[in-house]
Amino acid sequence: MYTTVRDSPIHGRGVFAIQAIPRGTRIFEYTGELITREEEIQRELENDKTGVTYIYQLNDHESIDGAYGGNDSRFVNHSCDPNVEGVIEDGHIYYVALRDIKRDEELFIDYAFDKDSKREPCHCGSTNCRGVMNEM
């Protein structure tokens, strides 16, 4: 076990390293309910009311909703300067360290929401911040 969940200075809850994590380490799998893209659209409408979503697109037809049966990976927050990336392999999504991560450092992924979708403001504070969580 490499991580723990606690309050994040960026947003709500976050995932933090409890030990050093070397670059290239597969940290954990993004888990949850496998849903169709049609179901994703319906759930996103509901999620817009709360402002929180845990849906990760797996491919053109399926997504994983971490709100249902998900693990701690759903609490990895967005940053425009991420230290982890999602790697899709054989129908699974794994979070892998992009660089060495120090103990007590928060884990971040670039959500890279579609550039044509609703603009989601970013508050990551990195020097590379785009101002939005969408691709540019």
**Rg from alpha-carbon coordinates:** 14 Å
| Overall pLDDT metric | 93
Helix content bin: 10-25%
Distance between the termini: 34 Å
- Strand runs, count: 10
- Share of β-strand residues: 25-35%
What does the largest sheet look like?
3 strands, antiparallel
Helical/strand content category: mainly beta
Please describe what this structure looks like.
This protein is mostly beta strands. The chain has a domain at 32-68. Helix content is 10%, strand content 31%. The chain contains 1 helix and 10 strands; from the N terminus they run ββββαββββββ. The protein has one helix at residues 37-50, and strands at 3-7, 13-17, 26-30, 33-36, 55-57, 62-65, 77-78, 84-89, 92-97, 108-109. The strands form 4 sheets. A 3-stranded antiparallel sheet has the order 3-9-8, with no helix packed on it. The protein has a 3-stranded antiparallel sheet with strand order 4-6-5, with helices on one face. The protein has a two-stranded antiparallel sheet with strand order 1-2. A hairpin with a 5-residue loop joins β1 and β2 (13-17).
Quick structural overview:
The protein has one helix spanning 37-50, and strands at 3-7, 13-17, 26-30, 33-36, 55-57, 62-65, 77-78, 84-89, 92-97, 108-109. It is mainly beta and 136 residues long. The longest helix has 14 residues, at 37-50.
Walk me through the topology.
Blueprint: E1 3-7, E2 13-17, E3 26-30, E4 33-36, H1 37-50, E5 55-57, E6 62-65, E7 77-78, E8 84-89, E9 92-97, E10 108-109
Parallel strand pairs: 7-10
Antiparallel strand pairs: 1-2, 3-9, 4-6, 5-6, 8-9
